Amino acid sequence: MTLPTMEQGFAIRVRGQVQGVGFRPFVWRLARAAGLRGDVLNDAEGVLIRLVAQDCGDFIAALRADRPPLARIDAIEAVPQVFAAMPEGFSIAASAGTGAETRVTPDAATCPECRAEIFAPGRRQGYAFTNCTHCGPRYTILRELPYDRARTTMAGFGLCPDCAAEYADPADRRFHAQPIACPACGPNLWYEAGGKEVAGDPVALAVAALKAGQVVAVKGLGGFHLACDAANARAVALLRARKRRPSKPFALMGTEAMIRAHATPSEACWRLLRDPAAPVVLVPARGTLPEDVAPGMRALGVMLPYTPLHHLLIAAFGGMLVMTSGNLSGAPQVIGNDEARKALARFADGFLMHNREIARRLDDGVERAEPPMVIRRARGRVPGTLPLPPGFDAAPRVLAFGGQMKAAICLTKNGQAMVSQHLGDLDDAETALEYDRTLRDLAALFDHAPELAACDPHPGYRATVTAEGAGQPLMRVWHHHAHLASCLGDNLWPLDGGRVAGIVMDGLGLGPDGTIWGGELLLGDYTGFERLAHLAPAPLPGGDRASREPWRNALARLDQAGLSAVADRLFPDAPRALLRQAVGAGVNAPRSSSAGRLFDAFAALAGFAGAQSYEGEAAMRLEAMARPAAPYPFDCRDGIIDPAPMFRAAAADLAAGRDRGDMAGAFHAGLARAFCAPARALVQGGRARAVALSGGVLQNAFLLRECLAALDGLPVLLHRQIPANDGGLAFGQALVAAAQRMAAAKSL
Amino acid sequence: LSHGGGGKAMADLIETVFFPAFGPGSGEDQARLTADALCEPGARLALTTDSFVVTPLEFPGGDIGKLAVCGAVNDLAVGGARPLWLSAAFIIEEGCEIALLQRVVASMAREAALAGVRIVTGDTKVVGRGSADGLFVTTSGVGVIPAGRDLAAARIRPGDVVLVNGVLGDHGAAILAARGDLALSTDLVSDCQGLGHLMEAVLAVAPGTRAARDATRGGLAAALNEMALAAGCGIEIREEALPLRPEVRGVCEILGLDPLYLANEGTLVLFVPEAEAEAALTAMRSRPEGQGAAIIGRAVAASEGGAHTARVQMVTSFGGCRIVDRLVGEQLPRIC
Ligand SMILES: [Fe+3]
Ligand SMILES: [Mg+2]
Ligand SMILES: [Zn+2]
Ligand SMILES: [Zn+2]
């Protein structure tokens, strides 16, 4: 009897986003190049590598340094491994474990190699569905897990021999690329106008229509876009009229050269634009495009082409395109061909169509680079997971239902959080259906059985009503506590990291005292909070209508500051008497400390007239006009931050004819000081360990910079991957519910 | 008026205020009713009761007494019953003027005569100051549903047409104006009216009528949500089709109120099979209570899955589709 030869080596565990991104062939090539033996496989925890080697330090360093573009490594652990027999070489072994744990990664923009391929002679020249393991559709074509071709909308397209060979070759960058395709076997493109297909090159036909100033519906990755020539003011006006969208900025798409011609992105902006997520990035405009593209804004929302179809279209068109989502304002975008023909016929003159179905609706994400901040979490980021902060490893599985206006849900499991895409306003019937579908879909996709549910306490939120009917034990998390916790979690603030000062400024959220909050200084952590200071409450004359018509807030605030005569002068035609009586009699005029409504009030004072045509319009225009200026004074006594002195100073400036941009700057600076001074005192007095900035109002970059200046030298926590607005509520709700549950369990 | 026991003062009150309006009592502690209407085989008895509280007690277009009679009559009528008899109970706060009480009672008698019902029994209590807000009235009504008539929200089917008999929100807006806190310079008048005759006129030409409701507190939104839930289907209404008086629309815009949630006191919501919709509309318009009648939408199949399969939606004038929830407590702003 002879003992088998025992070979010494290592088992290397890699965790993170390492499946479906070409990680195994990458490991295979790395091992081959180093002449190492062993194998690599996918399992429930990620990727497992077994290697015969004396030392694996260099190998691990190479794993980190040269990882594939879409891979994200959260952790690598190596333990000694004894091989019973010497492996034959290095191989890719069969996956181990069940499919439900196999992650699907977000959709990724066309990689440089694929981009080069479609513009060069070869079998994929001009092919709109080119992709590889480093790029292409993922989540938007996925029907169910595990992620392989048969369970995607590519199932109906059988591979041709050439594609099959690429798919099977570990040395090819299309090894196991599920949506692999070529003109011989993959989806195809056509152009429709007047209700029927038009013969000819579909891209050329679309370009001709765009050149003629028409609107073209373009089937994209997560939905349809409506496209028109961004440089053609009449085409932009036509699209605005048809969409009944008078002034909300349009997203734009163009090549790097085109973006450079119309905007001045910083290095950070360029990095974000080139990210595989290819979000819409807010960049400073040069003012070379028609004002109507983004009325009253100093920034443009631009993105690079992110599918081969976009690259072909933009290259053939030769200029920047408006690419706005194909929907009615407020409703989810259209994804089906028949649905598009029906719903978009009144917007579009032609349709650039294809026969690869969209399984999941995903809007374009919206982000800012400086400071980095996700404003709308959508395509390219979902279904990416985020690690939970230290201390949450043993957190229960939570399902958080989020808010009303920027609905999004969050699931937690195994120390990770899954935040859904931005879904929209749940008052919209289609969005509400999409919300219900997303609840079912993500539960199935992540094999998630919640132990605990979390929601906002506002009884009128549809999300709350849904949560109440969901059948899990339910925890209600106060709106502004959820905002604070979402900021903490986004910064991986540890569960036992201590209390922070939270400046939370937003529109409206129900507070524990039954009034509507929105301009708050909190002191708290994941488990609890105190309200230390807040804006002096003012009535919202007309309830929700005050959120649409900024002048109502100006009337309320000016009256409160003893400046009724100024209000009378500013709003001569408004029904002031009746609203003042309604305020006096308490008829639909709830009191609120909202910072969003304070912005509206100041915007109206500074000249914003009438109703807002989209949420946040008045505040965004105020931000766009602001110039650095010395702060206006606010009173702060007994935790009440009173804007009356600010309004008195502003009214005097208005009478003196001071520049509105300076006034807007003084307002931003004054508000920032008013909140940051007490927050600074909390940190310096040892009661808080840092200052967290959250709430939709703090997506205002000018205000954020003023706050950062006022907090200089202190540790400050900003939102990054989780939106500061109500799109981040669900994440915060999940963290608070989990923390409170764990605390309760500990105290038993 | 002073607070008293069951003595002479009370007897005087009943004799001077109630008998002249409602006629003398039987002298017994009950009303005795002839049951002929019920002798038809298959006929059913309908009984309803409601309490009425309103500030102010008198308002343009009505008063608490008219409200109480119409309320009972309408609750019977929308179930397909012919209203026949009412009882009325009064809780009177000490200090309430006799003259006001007389006006209210006279108004009840007038409204009862119009509706063809008799007030056959009643009760009166006087309570101390602060124990009531002027005057509370409770009415109960008895009616008979003829054989073969069966109105129920559960009978609503997708495709059925929704009608209303006239403009929405007048009562709620008129009450708001009458409270005096707001200088609303309008000619708003409550729509308070009995709907018995209108229902009979509709049922004569639209015998297939599925169900009806009196859209009172919570407005049209509450009535539709209640019906959608009972029917297990969806309801889709069109914003453009909603009959609204410009003054009501104006008041709502200024005060930020939604006319769908404003109270009505004479507004009928009717579900009729498509084939009978035109006939029902014509019948309504031929009566004064139905002058402003309109088709406002239809029942639709319940939406797929989710927590809220039966819901009410409104196609807006922009072409979007908004969920019309029932009001949860007081309307709190939600826009963040
Ligand atoms: Fe909020
Ligand atoms: Mg009743
Ligand atoms: Zn590629
Ligand atoms: Zn092929």
UniProtKB/TrEMBL annotation, chain A:
Residues 200-380 form the YrdC-like domain. It holds the Pfam family HypF_C. The keyword Glycoprotein does not apply. Pathway: Protein modification; [NiFe] hydrogenase maturation. InterPro entries: Acylphosphatase-like_dom, Acylphosphatase-like_dom_sf, Acylphosphatase_CS, Carbamoyltrans_HypF-like, Carbamoyltransferase_HypF, DHBP_synth_RibB-like_a/b_dom, HypF_C, HypF_C_2. Keywords: Hydrolase, Ligase, Metal-binding, Zinc, Zinc-finger. The active site is at residues 24, 42. Its EC number is 6.2.-.-. Belongs to the carbamoyltransferase HypF family. It catalyses: C-terminal L-cysteinyl-[HypE protein] + carbamoyl phosphate + ATP + H2O = C-terminal S-carboxamide-L-cysteinyl-[HypE protein] + AMP + phosphate + diphosphate + H(+); an acyl phosphate + H2O = a carboxylate + phosphate + H(+). Residues 9-94 form the Acylphosphatase-like domain. Involved in the maturation of [NiFe] hydrogenases. Along with HypE, it catalyzes the synthesis of the CN ligands of the active site iron of [NiFe]-hydrogenases. HypF functions as a carbamoyl transferase using carbamoylphosphate as a substrate and transferring the carboxamido moiety in an ATP-dependent reaction to the thiolate of the C-terminal cysteine of HypE yielding a protein-S-carboxamide. This is Carbamoyltransferase HypF. Gene3D superfamilies: 3.30.110.120, 3.30.420.360, 3.30.420.40, 3.90.870.50.
